[in-house]
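Q: I'm writing up a methods section and want to include an example of the input and output format. Could you take the sequence below and give the corresponding predicted structure tokens, formatted cleanly so I can copy it straight into the document?
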Amino acid sequence: MAKFLLLFTIIPLLELFLLIEVGRVIGTVPTIFIVGGTGFFGVLLARMQGMYTIYRFRSELSRGVLPAEEMFNGACVLVGSAFLLTPGLITDVLGFALLIPHTRFFIKKFAQKKINKMIANGDIRIWRP
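A: Here is the clean output for your methods example:
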């Protein structure tokens, strides 16, 4: 719980600091356009990636394959979209990283290693009925 409290206080402060500094260097109006532009292009990219993920999900289901990777891709697109809707430059970078398939690949590998380590340590338990 303390990690989440830190996360939800430090990230917004860093975002605010970065926006103020960028605004000081390039000006207020260009900074607003950058934040608005990343949001606009982020929505377009999120829609495109979301539709593609749904298409792949349905395709794998129709072949009788469990679409586990597409479920993870869908989660990445959802979280990336939420990051892009949040005003700020750090969250925009994270959002785009989750929406672009090539960078999402590395994020997936990192998450798989982390989850496997948590399972091995007993932090995550999987029950079978």
